[in-house]
Amino acid sequence: MVRPITVFGIDVEVIRKTGARTVKLKIDRKTGRPQVIIPFLYPVFMAQKFVESHFVWLQAQLKLTPPKTCFSDGMTLCILGRTLCIKHEENRRGGAFIEGDCLIVTGNAEHLHRRVKDFIKKQVADYAVVKAKDTARLLNKSVTRVTIKDTVSRWGSCTSEGHLAFCWRLGLAPLYVLDYVIIHEAAHLAEMNHSRAFWKKVAELNADTRRAKKWLNDHAAELHSFL
Questions:
Q1: Are residues 172 and 119 part of one domain?
Q2: Does 86 lie in the same domain as 46?
Q3: pTM of the predicted structure, to 2 decimals
Q4: What percent of the chain has pLDDT over 90?
Q5: Is there a domain that residue 70 lies in?
Q6: Which of 14, 115, 166, 175 has the most Cβ atoms closer than 10 angstroms to its Cβ?
Q7: How confident is the model at residue 213, as a pLDDT?
């Protein structure tokens, strides 16, 4: 394991990658920290020079990266299109549940973030299972499994075996965005590519493609700020 390098006061994680051919500097979406990816035998001092030469870019990217966020008492969230205010009630039981316009979270405060996250995951899972299966049925295809993951590189995925997966953070996006991602992945059951035929099927399934893609492009950093 390579120790992080410090460039003008900023710690940068160094990652050696066997298949890498070039040096790449990026901000890790999951942690919000800078990383430099280097070929396996690339000298660390050269990685340091590379980061120094791109320091202005790195500073700009760090300014654009929202700080990592934990769910907290009093925070207002939009979950599957419904606006809810988190209300911590330590002495009650039941985990996390909706009561009126509040998301009640019970138990010790240190468990609040996890319980809210688990609640969102379940909401996304329940919704995605129904939506994906209904969409697949229109294509004369079937969904074998739906899972919810903590991904940062993609919003959803589909395998040739009919296994669909979605990022839990989509539960914090407008419902038309979640619908688009589900339809997009379900359409891959018929077309495992991004050909003209694939996009035609997505359009036929009434996905709000242009608006959803723009929203994700504009708000991706905001969604990924949630731990």
A1: yes
A2: no
A3: 0.79
A4: 82
A5: no
A6: 166
A7: 96
How many Å apart are CA 55 and CA 35, to the nearest integer? 12
pLDDT of 169 > 90? The answer is: yes
From 64, 86, 115, the end of a domain falls on 64
Give the model's pLDDT for residue 152.
Answer: 81
pLDDT in tens, 5-32: 999 989 999 999 998 899 999 988 777 7
Residue found by looking up tokens 């329940």 in the block: 126
Start-end of H helices in the chain: 44-53, 55-64, 112-138, 175-187, 196-204, 209-224
Beta carbons of 28 and 42 less than 8 angstroms apart? no
Which 3 state secondary structure label does DSSP give 26?
strand
Q: How far apart are CA 179 and CA 44, in angstroms?
A: 45
The span from the CA of 227 to the CA of 67, in Å, is 10
- Domain assignment of residue 208, given as a range: 76-224
Mean pLDDT of the chain: 93
The one-letter code for the residue type at 181 is V
Strand order in the sheet with 34-39: 5-7, 10-17, 34-39, 24-27
Same domain, 205 and 151: yes
Residue 211 lies in a domain: yes
Asked if the structure places residue 181 within a domain, the reply is: yes
Task: Tell me which residue of 124, 131, 132, 129 sits closest to 151, measured CA to CA.
Answer: 124
Residue 77 has pLDDT above 90, yes or no: yes
Q: What values do phi and psi take at 164, rounded to 5?
A: -105, 140
pLDDT in tens, 122-142: 999 999 999 999 999 999 999
- Domain count for the chain, please give it: 2
